Amino acid sequence: MTQPFLLSRSSGPNLSWLNGAALYQIYPLSFRDHGGDGWGDLDGVLEGLEHVASLGVDGVWISPFYPSPRTDFGYDVADHRAVDPRMGTLATFDRVVERAHALGLKLLVDLVCGHTSDAHPWFVESRRSRGNDKADWYVWADAKPDGTPPNNWLSVFGGAAWTWEPRRRQYYLHHFLSSQPALNLHAPAVMDALCETAEFWMARGVDGFRIDAVDFFAHDPQLRSNPAAIWREPEPPLKPFALQQHVHDMMHPAIGGILARLRETVERYPGRVLLGELSSQPGAGQRIAAYCTPHGLHAAYSLSLAKQPFSAKGFAQALSAVPRPDSICWSLSNHDVERAASRWLPKGADPQAFNALLAMLAATLPGTVCLYQGEELGLPNAVLELHQLRDPFGITYWPDFQGRDGSRTPMPWRGDDANAGFSGGEPWLPVPDAHAGLAVDRQERTAGSPLSVWRAALSLRRELAALRTGTVAAVEEHGDLLSFERASGEERLLAVFNLAGRPAEFALRGRGQLEALAVPRAPGATAPEATPDGRTLVMPPLSVFLGRLRLPV
Asked: Strand 59-62 to strand 2-3: parallel, antiparallel, or no bridges (unpaired)?
């Protein structure tokens, strides 16, 4: 299937330094432990920044380091304007900012706007009574006459999205854990507090925010129940959340006004940006387009693509679903999903060849790309036993869904050290033996390692303006083949990917003269070749072709 129309332009009213940038996500609890307690910390982040800069990325996104009971491992925030004492101090954070900037890296931090921990002082006060200063800071509702919750909304993590609070004689809303009550973002004082939080961190030098769980910012004010979804499978789904159409509990149009208020705040600080996380609910492309405007986000990523099978059709649809693909952030792996190196690896395929394919995909896609820590090492997802799990989501749905801990195991730094150099103490999650063999120090001295492939791929993205900020056109998918063109000025590039573990042929169809460019490959991998008549590219399994197009004069 071909999408022949022009999909993006290199200039526009909502562009920022994110356009064309490569980011690196640090999940600090698992990045590096300086203190020796088995949990990563900000001093560990400081120690690892030089490695991050060596990849050739433009910035880092640091997941939460705020005070937290860690029921959701950082995303249950108990104080938005402090550092968890177990992870450092504000002075430590200031050193991280200073070092990142000295290395030429922008720095984003999480702004968790939609919910807090139930240990947050705001909620502690709000739950006491219906008449205190923060009574309306969270989403409260009366019970139905029979005592049941006000509607049928479900938590993503399982069970009802409502929990009874006896002191108020009301239910409170929580889209995730019951220990993560939902903030009422329609209350002016709440938005004032969140915007003041953003200013607090921008004054300390951060370059922007990753905005957590945007689709859950607003809901139907009438609290109407969701209709049932159409489920055609013989057995019910593992997670009941899939049995509803989520038309009332999330994705409400009022989200636009909330994002506008956040954008107004960051606009007071030149060069600051907002990067949003969207859910995997249908219509993610349309929501990226709706949210990424001069009055909203600068860019956004969705969990939708990562939760689909690995296919040319999936990538082509994602590229074509947004009128301006430069507003897309491509997060192929992160702390919420299984690592792509395992999730998408075709059966029987060479992991190193697949790693090279993922690296070149990231290097050639428009907009922003975001690597997740360890992705540059080709780390597979860890397989853990039930007793090793920390993630409440995984514990609830074990064994059919093993949760998110497999992507959160510690970063391996030195293969011969205890815990692969992550910590001198017992790590909060185990370090798999296979990960120690892929440690940073071992890959540094191995030619053709996944680390060297990622560095070379990101170097290509920096060097070629067409890949970094060029237009996107001629998006096509034919079976296992994905192709698209990138262009900037006089330069026009063709990228072709064979996403399967079997050979395929790509018809060039009069594209003019084609000059193949050198791209990083796994050791021993065969490069694509044109047939003698120049009409067809023969694509080996999991191969990438990048070429410069020269139209006939």
From this structure: unpaired
